[in-house]
Amino acid sequence: MTDHPAHRDTPDTAATDTPAAHHSDDAEARAFRELLRGLRVWDTELPSFDPETAPAEPLPLFRQWLREAAEAGVPEPHTMTLATADAAGAPNVRTLMLHDADERGWHFASHRGSRKGRELDARPRAALGFYWAAVGRQVRVRGPVTAAGPEESAADLHRRSTGALAAALVGRQSEVLGSVGELAQASDAAWERARREPEAPVPSWTLYVLHPEEVEFFQGDAQRRHLRLNYRREGGGWMRELLWP
Question: Which of 1, 21, 53, 183 is the most exposed place for a label (fewest CB within 10 A)?
Answer without folding.
Answer: 1
